[in-house]
Give the backbone structure.
Amino acid sequence: MNVAITGSSGFIGSHLSSRLAVFGHQVTPLWRYLFTQDSVDCLAEALAGCHAVINLAGAPIDRRWTDAYKQELVESRIMTTRKLVEAVNRLHEPPEVMISTSAVGYYSPAGGCHGEQDDPAADSFLAELCVAWEKEAKLVNDSVRLVRTRFGVVLSPDGGALPRMVRPARFGITAAVGNPDHPFSWVALEDLVDALIFIMGKEDISGPVNVTAPERTTNREFYKAAAEHFHTRLSIHVPDAVLRLLMGEASQVITNGQCAIPETLMREGFEFQYPDIRTFFNKAFPVKS
């Protein structure tokens, strides 16, 4: 298949592009300049002949949210998706499937574990952003199978949040952050990439899809598994107030976790390489003999 990708040079997009090539697919990067033009003519031209579109564009969420940066978070998701949908809808032969990214921040931190049909959180910037993001994607032509993937925290030793989270372990310290009992929905990068390719090839999958590990993990369980794996000698807890001081409103990404269950992926038979956090640590950071 010819697969067009926004955000193809980013953390997830670069790994996805490499994985698609392994399976013999062709990748068409949708570069940022295509979305800065008033017209979507060039974007539509780039999409012509593509069988699938995967929308990964969006400014990083894990930094202080000033008013200006909040606007960037919104525009990098909403406007990119809006132009992408407009370009797809212009095509005489649109792609068979469009996978558009969202996040488990769509759900409330309360109310237990959430399935894909649960309502979004109320009075939450993250939830409002996800709802608006998905709303833009849903304007795509009805002839295109639309999947709205809601990612958990993406874990990889190569990048993203994890290296910062486990860096103190290199010095024998586990620095736990957030409420220990809050849920921590995560997914290994390799599983996320394989899930996107799996969804792309499954014609009966559409609508919202949680892309998270099947294990229900809390902050306490995550940091306990990290401490056991790295054999740390000291465990400290970073108070929420310190995180709010350092990160402002963005600290809620760490302090207010959501529990999201990958109902569709499990029902459709997707096989996770990293189904639980201990398996992840053992494979991601193998013990040297």
Summary: The longest helix spans residues 67-90. Residues 209 and 265 are 7 Å apart (CA to CA).
